[in-house]
Amino acid sequence: MIHEIADITPNGAATLVSAVSAKAAWVGFTAPLTNSATGIRVGGLGTDASHGAIVSPGGGFLFPPLGNANAYDLVTIKVFAAAGTDKIAVIYETN
Hints:
This protein is mainly β. 0% of the residues lie in helices and 40% in strands.
């Protein structure tokens, strides 16, 4: 089943994708074209201003499906961007 999380608006600090454990087979991120040119960083618990994959405006990033169902826990994924109006959308699938 595919789930959506309300858009996340980073606040200048690394923000957890979820405050509660949620296991996912894959996790996808998309950034609106209206975001700033710097992009939003996405990654594990070490994500910050200089670590993590960059999702540029209009772009996306996928934590791909792994061999084990529900291999990702959303409480171990963070997003980072300078405080502002940028947003990032999150979808994930559970088996």
